[in-house]
Amino acid sequence: MGATHVTVTIRNPADLEQAWEGLFLVDTGATDSLVPRQHLEAIGLKPRGQRVYELADGSELRMDVTVGQIEFMGEFVGGTIIFGDENAEPLLGVTALESVGIEVDPRNQRLKRLPAVRLKGMKITA
Questions:
Q1: Which of 30, 67, 86, 121 has the fewest Cβ atoms nearer than 10 Å?
Q2: What is the DSSP letter of 97?
Q3: Quick check: 4 and 112 in contact, CB under 8 A?
């Protein structure tokens, strides 16, 4: 199975002119997105806290996180972004994908839009 990549722009929500664009690996196994630290700092984003993440090998790692605007495929969403190491590959996590109604087509390894963003569990009252 191949890897899916997409061009993503990360913006500082306090100053939307401050932005960084890169090619991100779409990682449906990752909840949050990850960007190398130097790119986040260059657009004025600073750590707002830390979270413990479980890695693929089962080990845990405490990492700095922030909030930023994540834009891809003509959509945008506010999301948690992990400060990655200098040489880390940028990752687009599943939360950002699902928030705008986009999923990975596993057969073609492409991103596809859903007809609507999922809003399960909500009851509409008239």
A1: 121
A2: H
A3: no
User: Is residue 124 assigned to a domain?
Assistant: no
Q: Which domain holds residue 62?
A: 5-113
Cα–Cα distance, 105 to 117 (Å, whole number) = 16
120 assigned to some structural domain: no
What does the pLDDT profile of the chain (126 residues) look like in tens digits? 568 999 999 999 999 999 999 999 999 889 999 999 999 999 999 999 999 999 889 999 999 999 999 999 999 999 999 999 999 999 999 999 999 989 888 778 788 887 766 666 656 666
Q: Which CATH number covers residue 18? A: 2.40.70.10
Identity of residue 81: I
CA angle in degrees (0–180, nearest 5) for 117-111-121 = 20
Count of positions (residues) in the chain? 126
- For residue 123, being part of any structural domain is answered with no
Residues 92, 25: contact at Cβ < 8 Å? yes
Token couple for 1: 């199975």
